[in-house]
Amino acid sequence: MNDQKTFSDNQEIERSKVYITVEIIEYIPNSVVIKTILKKTTGNISVMSFDNGEGLMESTSPFDTFVQVIEGKAKIIIDEIPLTLNTGESVIIPAHKPNLIRPNGRFKMIMTVIKSGYE
Please, what are the domains in the chain? Predict the structure, then answer.
């Protein structure tokens, strides 16, 4: 993660169009890529890809976050409790809990943040 690059596309994807979710985003060498699916004042949905050796630093959100693995495998540590998620599995990261995402190889996920209820 030393030379990590993050690419972010905040433009929402086109509505009323069918997508294969795992194909919305590609891998870029030595990078984390974030693509916005929907962005609203009440929350957002993003799809993310992580190249080999990449991950996210520990963070804490004031909002509940739903993480769904769409390709690969990752360890997600929530409030010091490690969970291993495989393709098709998901977890809700509770608001105000420190969390860390460590992929095991290339990895893609959908992240949904719901902002209502905690303001």
Answer: 5-114 (2.60.120.10)
